[in-house]
Amino acid sequence: MNWEKLESDVKKIMESLGFVAIRCRNSRPADLVCLKEGLPPIFVECKYGSATISKKQAEKLLELARRAGGILLLVYRKRYRRTRFCLVLPDGLIPLDDLSCFLQTLKDGGVQSIRPIARRASLLT
């Protein structure tokens, strides 16, 4: 397993949920951009192993997502552990235990429906 396999796995997961998932060359602006009718664009940043997302990178991606009317997801997998999805907000991360349920909530209520208090996480450095 490596970061390329993680990106490929996440792309397959998003496609299985009906998204058009595009891997971005050189991971710019994000690793994946996922599009589906009726939902805001989803920018996905994948991290594998001990890799983290810097605060500066998170802020840059959040601004891009805001300008596009979309959201930012952080997907990470520590070695020998399961893949985790988190919603990235300006004040922290919200772990998503059920991606399908989250996407349905997003579809039903839009971006404003996902504003619960975010819990800080150590992935932002």
Keywords summarizing the entry:
125 residues, alpha+beta, Trna Endonuclease, Chain: A, domain 1, six-stranded mixed sheet, 6 strands, disordered C terminus
Overview of the molecule:
With 125 residues, this protein is an alpha+beta fold. The chain has one domain (3-114): Trna Endonuclease, Chain: A, domain 1, CATH 3.40.1350. It has helices at residues 3-16, 55-67, 99-109; strands at residues 20-23, 32-35, 42-48, 71-77, 84-89, 92-96. It has a 6-stranded mixed β-sheet with strand order 1-2-3-4-5-6. β1 (20-23) and β2 (32-35) form a beta hairpin.
Task: Describe how the helices and strands are arranged.
Layout: H1 3-16, E1 20-23, E2 32-35, E3 42-48, H2 55-67, E4 71-77, E5 84-89, E6 92-96, H3 99-109
Parallel strand pairs: 3-4
Antiparallel strand pairs: 1-2, 2-3, 4-5, 5-6
